[in-house]
Amino acid sequence: xxxxxxxxxxxxxxxLEEVTRKAAGELGIDAEISKVKEIDKIMGYGxxxxxxxxxxxxVKVAGKVPSVDEIKKMISK
Length: 77
Description:
Elements: E1 2-6, H1 11-27, E2 32-36, H2 39-44, E3 52-55, E4 58-62, H3 68-75
Parallel strand pairs: 1-2
Antiparallel strand pairs: 1-3, 3-4
């Protein structure tokens, strides 16, 4: 599973990465988690407000930091 955190490095972006790593860890998911800071790449996903979470190429949430439980639901298959 590929998880991408879209954001330029603001505190909310950092928090989203933190809760995403925690959710994946609690589920025991072996995920590739990366940060995307380049504006052109973020815009390529159609995201206009950060932070955003992309799961396997699909934007799941943008503009807020969901809870660990909410992220678990997004990344569970």
